[in-house]
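[09:14] KT: can someone run the structure on this one? pasting the chain below
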Amino acid sequence: MGWASSPSIATRAGKDAHPTRVIRVIGYFFIWKSLKQLATQDEDTWVRSAAVEELAGNYKDDPDTLPILKRATQDEDSDVRNTALEELARNYKDGVTLRLI
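[09:31] RB: done, C-alpha cells below
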C-alpha cells in the first residue's frame, strides 16, 4: 500500500511519476487540507482570514475552495467576511460568483 494506491494522489501525480512530483502533490494536499481547516475552524479571526486569502489565491481551481469562501462570507467576524468577499471579487470574476457578492 503506497502512494500509487491512493486514487487522488495517483491521479494528480501519475502512477509512474518521479518521486519529486509525488512529494509536491502530497505537500499540496497537506497544505490545502490545513488551510481548509484553518479557514473554517480556527478560533483566531486573523488566522481564518489569512487561510481564506491563501485558499482563494493559491487553490481557487480546487472544487472545495469556492464553497469555503462562500461560507466565510457568513463568518461571525467582519474581517473574515470582508476578506472572503474581496477574494471572491478578485479571484472569481464569472457572473455567477459575482452575483453572490
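[09:33] KT: thanks! The radius of gyration is 16 Å.
[09:34] RB: yep, looked fine to me
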